[in-house]
């Protein structure tokens, strides 16, 4: 059965990935749109992983000031070349991440950045809450891991759901950006300011 080119175009617009790759993805999953998105994501993740060790000495510092002038964000996002640093898609990505930080107030970039003492404290709090539940230790361990995952999804930028589209996390957006642009991209650091906030 011939491929529906309107679907190929829709997939290309949705993912930002080239027409040929979108066509190939749809062919591989017999024209199933959702499976094609999943297939491209997995492929993008593998490509992103392969690029993750490449040096990122270029990039941009971008900013966002909320309309009420009470919240501001500064972010540094690095890439491999000056050419990509000027790319419209890359710059839009940095703007979206700035807005995410303003809206969702993450404390860290990734779960790897959370200090061990904070993780231990979270585990201690969760275990204390479950102390009198009568649940066996192995179930408590599973609950602790689940609640930690939830903590990371709120406190860590990459684990957060994208505020504009809850089908994506910031990490999956970053992975797609790496796949689309073909370079390693790293969110290096950010600062969020809010009027009246203590430092």
What does this structure look like?
This protein is α+β, with helices and mostly antiparallel strands and 199 residues long. The protein has 3 domains: 5-51, Helicase, Ruva Protein, domain 3, CATH 1.10.8.10; 58-110 and 156-194, Tetrahydropterin Synthase, Chain A (2-Layer Sandwich), CATH 3.30.479; 115-154, GTP Cyclohydrolase I, Chain A, domain 1 (Orthogonal Bundle). Helices cover 54% and strands 13% of the residues. It contains 8 helices and 3 strands. The protein has helices at 5-15, 19-28, 33-51, 82-85, 88-104, 116-130, 137-155, 170-181, and strands at 58-65, 71-79, 186-194. It has a 3-stranded antiparallel sheet with strand order 1-2-3. β1 and β2 (71-79) form a beta hairpin. α2 packs across α3, α3 (33-51) crosses α8 (170-181) and α6 (116-130) crosses α7. The longest helix is centred in the first third of the chain and has 19 residues, at 33-51. It is globular and about 60 Å long. The N and C termini lie far apart (62 Å). The mean pLDDT is 85.
Task: Give a brief rundown of this model.
By secondary structure, the chain is an alpha+beta fold. It contains 8 helices and 3 strands; from the N terminus they run αααββαααααβ.
Write the layout of secondary structure elements.
Elements (H helix, E strand, L loop, with lengths): L4 H11 L3 H10 L4 H19 L6 E8 L5 E9 L2 H4 L2 H17 L11 H15 L6 H19 L14 H12 L4 E9 L5
Antiparallel strand pairs: 1-2, 2-3
Helix pairs in contact: 1-2, 2-3, 3-8, 5-8, 6-7
Order of helices and strands: HHHEEHHHHHE
Helix content: 40-55%
Please identify which CATH superfamily of the largest domain we are dealing with.
Elongation factor Ts, dimerisation domain
Number of domains: 3
Give Rg in angstroms.
Answer: 20 Å
Strands ordered across the widest β-sheet:
1-2-3
How does the helix and strand content classify structurally?
A: alpha+beta
């Amino acid at each position: 059965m011939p491929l529906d080119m309107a679907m190929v175009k829709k997939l290309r617009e949705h993912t930002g990935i080239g027409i040929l790759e979108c066509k190939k993805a749809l062919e591989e999953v017999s024209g199933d749109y959702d499976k094609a998105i999943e297939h491209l994501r997995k492929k993008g993740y593998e490509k992103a992983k392969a690029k993750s060790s490449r040096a990122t000495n270029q990039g941009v510092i971008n900013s966002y000031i909320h309309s009420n002038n009470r919240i501001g964000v500064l972010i540094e996002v690095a890439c491999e070349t000056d050419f990509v640093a000027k790319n419209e898609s890359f710059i839009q990505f940095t703007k979206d991440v700035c807005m995410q930080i303003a809206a969702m107030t993450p404390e860290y970039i990734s779960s790897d950045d959370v200090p061990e003492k904070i993780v231990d404290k979270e585990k201690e709090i969760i275990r204390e809450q479950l102390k009198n539940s009568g649940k066996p230790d192995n179930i408590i361990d599973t609950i602790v891991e689940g609640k930690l995952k939830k903590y990371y999804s709120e406190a860590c930028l990459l684990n957060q759901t994208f505020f504009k589209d809850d089908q994506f996390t910031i990490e999956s957006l970053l992975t797609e950006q790496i796949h689309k642009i073909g370079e390693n991209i790293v969110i290096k650091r950010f600062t969020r300011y809010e009027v009246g906030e203590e430092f």
